[in-house]
Amino acid sequence: MAYKISDDCIACGACAEACPVNAISEGDCKYEINPDECIECGACAEACPVSAPAAE
Ligand code: SF4
Ligand code: SF4
Question: Which residue owns the Cα nearest ligand 1 atom 6?
Fold first, then answer.
């Protein structure tokens, strides 16, 4: 399953920079992961200061 960003996201953008396949983009209130592009590497979870991205 792809990673998903929770409502804890503070929209800092660190995950988008860390993602090797550019699967993360800025959404309305938080960043969002395109599940069709995510390769489940976990880099976004490591880069996030509030641990918002998690594997579903
Ligand atoms: Fe990108 Fe990896 Fe996070 Fe998926 S798990 S969104 S591929 S950084
Ligand atoms: Fe949101 Fe975490 Fe990504 Fe920052 S690194 S935009 S807080 S999910």
Answer: 38
Segment 16-31, tens digit of pLDDT: 999 999 999 999 899 9
Number of domains in the chain: 1
Please tell me the number of the ligand nearest to residue 23's CA. 1
Cα-to-chain-centroid distance, residue 26: 10
Q: How confident is the model at residue 52 (pLDDT cuts 50, 70, 90)?
A: very high
Q: CATH number for the domain including 48?
A: 3.30.70.20
Atom of ligand 1 nearest to the CA of 34: 6
For residue 51, what are the domain limits? 3-55
36 vs 3, 11, 12, 33, CA distance in Å?
A: 10, 21, 23, 9
- The answer to whether the CB of 27 is under 6 A from ligand 2 is no
